[in-house]
Amino acid sequence: MSSLAATVQNIFDEPGCAKNGSKSEAERRNGCTKQLQPGSAAGGCAFDGAKVALQPFTDVAHLVHGPIACEGNSWDNRGAVSSGSDLWRTAFTTDLSETDIVFGGEKRLCKAIKEIIDKYDPCAIFVYQTCIPAMIGDDINAVCKAASRRFLKPVIPINSPGFVGSKNLGNKLAGEALLDYVIGTREPDYTTPYDINLIGEYNLSGELWQVKPLLDELGVRILCCISGDGKYREVASSHRARAAMLVCSKSMINVARKMEQRYGIPFFEGSFYGIQDSSESLRQIARLLVERGAPTDLLGRTEALIAREEAWAWGAIEPYKPRFGGKKALLMTGGVKSWSVVAALQEAGLELVGTSVKKSTKEDKERIKELMGHDANMIENMTPREMYEMLKGAKADIMLSGGKSQFVALKAAVPWLDINQERCHAYMGYVGMVKLVEEIDKSLSSPMWEQLRRPAPWEALAKAMEQMQSPATALADPALAEKSRRARKICICNRVDLGTIEDAIYAHRLRSVEAVREHTNAVGGCCQRRIDEILVSEPSAMRQAAE
Amino acid sequence: MAQSAEHVIDHVELFRGPEYQQMLAKKKIFENPRDPAEVERIKEWTKTAEYREKNFAREALAVNPAKACQPLGAVFASVGFERTLPFVHGSQGCVAYYRSHLSRHFKEPSSCVSSSMTEDAAVFGGLNNMTDGLANSYNMYKPKMIAVSTTCMAEVIGDDLNAFIKTSKEKGSVPADFDVPFAHTPAFVGSHVTGYDNALKGILEHFWDGKAGTAPKLERKPNGAINIIGGFDGYTVGNLREIKRILELMGIQHTVLADNSEVFDTPTDGEFRMYDGGTTLEDAANAIHAKATISMQQWCTEKTLAFVAEHGQDVVSFNYPVGLSATDDFIVALSRLSGKEIPEQLARERGRLVDAIADSSAHVHGKKFAIYGDPDLCYGLAAFLLELGAEPTHVLSTNGNKAWQEKMQALLASSPFGQGCQAYPGRDLWHMRSLLFTEPVDFLIGNTYGKYLERDTGTPLIRIGFPIFDRHHHHRSPLWGYQGGLNVLVKILDKIFDEIDKNTNVLGKTDYSFDIIR
């Protein structure tokens, strides 16, 4: 455990992170994640963080050493997508039982590793530590070392048991494991001056594939993507890349910085969310590659491609502008998306009423201010209740967020769109942003929201009755009187309301059901009696009020 | 030999064996075989717009019509009364059809007798068959009532049911005061929904209007009760039980007329129930005093409702109310007619349906559907789809008429999602085939026969309708009420998700999207 504690401390000292750099020595030792508050709802643990960060490596067997809980609940729970092996989706766990916990689980782990090799022969095995074996003292580093030697196969310990901290810490510990055991252990078959690494990109819904064709067109090769649609061989030889793009800085900054330190691979933080951001990222990739010796024509080719793609994307978003006029959006997501999506939404004509900055860096916040002005509503930490109040108060027409706040939006009967990991649409790149706008449009135009917001009709009726009984208020609110007149159906068969029939009777001075039938759509069959009643009654109070 | 006594293979497997395959191949040359290329060409041609035009120009021939005949509806309505034996005056073959049809759908025995008219009866009239038939069925099956309807045969020769029944009673077939309501239900007029209407009206007329002149007419003494008529409905078991539950929740005194929810769902406990449940004859008679009568299906009860209205009741009809708005209208009508409050329980059920719609509507939104079935069912489903943001592109009802078309078209025009959608009255499933090829949709909603269209056109079928022969037990769950709306939503969603899975399950090719979470 001491080595794990040292690794954790090491991670907390991250010069690549501006926020971390500005802290005092003592603060830094406390770590960069907020201390958890017992009793309050919290996110995932360090194990989960490590698992989600590495799980997208497709040809690796991911073996979870622990009781069923850890793998049972996390099995195949992310929409990362593979272009090859399906092995990453298979759940491997040692499924520890009571005896293992009494006598130790190391032997069982070793056997499990052997059985995976016998039955699946993957190119590598990632062994994830969890709380229970860590507490009873199973040394997975030693088991993995022994297994690697015995089976002549990379068996990588991912030492990130849940109790050491947050999900984000787990992401970073996963990165440390890659740095310690994987990166630089193999050589690529060949290299080109156009080789790059993508770090912290998970190919959710296959969105990397919306960007890859653009890179292909420029001749830029993704030597390795950590970890979306990643392969073991690629990450092992990723130290030969010429440049790197850090996509999710929060999860993998340590990997990018240490690769720069160890192998001299320069990196930049970028995003493919949003149109200008995609362009900016392509530019940066080209710039870094040229700086490291790629032919300079890459810059010109990149600009030409950007011009073409931007023209297409803005053109595709244009038609939505009139539809989005006056519509307000609330963006509840983390990191780069807090600003990178903003530009595209603004371009499509949506007004942003707030964006969350819980997982955003200082730079992210600066970008937000640039885009949304200095009085931008940056939400540090919003409880579901506050979120609900904000939506319920009609301060936003649509919320874009992760699955966890989905139900807050739905209960507030406000359109909602998933832009985090469980979404089924890919929003990366130029194509993705157009898709996002399309999805927002679809969500805003769904007839379901009207149903959702409408109270049960009997509540509306009760209100109208109440109003009728106190004519003063009915007179005071003609709109309401009119509404309830329109809401009350007289002819059920053809759905003709009281208002229409009353108006027809008044306008044409009708005296009989026959006449009403002629002037309105009312059938006058089963509703004959009701129409009769209207004919003999004085003009209703509601009608007078509505006038 | 593929077949052996030790291991008998059924037809699914047997004819795939090499000896059968060889035999079938050799036999082909004796079957005046056509050039396969020509067959293929014609097959493709039948998918074109040109063929569709010719198809829609069809005047005389019906191909795969989606409707059944009047007496089927009459039998369906009749079994909904206490110990009532449906008696169909005419040829016995017809009656065997109704029994098997209902049995195959409900997976229950269906009891119903015929007067078994033969050639001589067709020439000399069916009076003797009626007399003997009533006497035999009365003695053999001990019914409390015999509800008579007719097949075409009796109608063509003009048998007068009123006179025949009277004569039979005089001859002592059944006691003079034994209830024998009747309805003329020729198959060459209308469809099973018309038959339902006629039979129910015949029964109410019998009890309310003096039992064919043998008793004084009832005088209406209005009370606060409400009558419910379900109409012809493949989901009658689930639906009527749900409606009764709602009425009881609201504390409304009620009579469900033609309540066949028990007889089509008898328990297996060692006792054969030829009759079970049903509206008691007393309740049927007393239903005249009710404040109002609600029909769940307008086109199943046109004559019945008019008859009820003539007796001074409020009448309201719906069109197979499915989903949120339609159920709202139904519940509000119940409350308005009965003066009863809507209980919290229903408000919660409504909230749950709203919640479910909110959770999943993104998957239904924008999808195109083709629907066929009985006129009311089509209307109810189309309305629900519009509510979900789906487009009911083709709505076809073989037994829908012009009035149905107008109402349907008005519904479609009322929603932005109904633009470009079309109602097709009087068309059949061969027309539907052309529609599915020339203007494809994402999903087809229909009965079991839709599986041929599904195979032919590749349009996934969602089974909602009558008859459903090849799936079991769905008739036990309601489609009405908020709970029913939820069931319909789930049926639709299941198919949508099945299709997504089906389109992403090729190993190593498309399975990168074969996701756990949808």
List descriptors.
heterodimer, A: 547 residues, alpha/beta, 4-stranded parallel β-sheet, 12% strand, B: 518 residues, 5-stranded parallel β-sheet, 21 helices, 10% strand, globular
Structural summary, described in words:
The complex is a heterodimer of chains A (547) and B (518). In chain A, α14 (275-291) packs antiparallel against α15 (297-317), α20 (384-392) packs across α21 (403-411) and α24 (457-469) crosses α26 (478-487). Helix content of chain A is 53%, strand content 12%. The model of chain A has no long low-confidence stretch (mean pLDDT 84). In chain A, the strands form 4 sheets. In chain A, strands 11-10-9-12-13 form a 5-stranded parallel β-sheet, with helices on both faces. In chain A, strands 2-1-3-4 form a 4-stranded parallel β-sheet, with helices on both faces. Chain A is of the alpha/beta class and 547 residues long. Chain A contains 30 helices and 15 strands. In chain A, 48% of the residues are buried. Chain A is elongated and about 100 Å long. Chain B is an alpha/beta fold and 518 residues long. Chain B has a 5-stranded parallel β-sheet, with helices on both faces. A 4-stranded parallel β-sheet of chain B has the order 5-4-6-7, sandwiched between helices. In chain B, α12 (236-250) links the parallel β4 (226-229) and β5 (254-257). Chain A binds chain B through residues 75-77, 79, 81-84, 86, 205-206, 410, 413, 422, 424, 442-443, 445-448, 451-452, 456-458, 461, 489, 492-494, 525-526, 528-529, and chain B through 298, 305-306, 309, 314-318, 324-325, 328-329, 331-333, 335, 342, 347, 350, 354-355, 357-359, 361-362, 365-366, 386-389, 407, 410, 415-417, 507-508, 511-513, 515-518.
Summarize this entry quickly.
Chain A is an alpha/beta fold and 547 residues long.
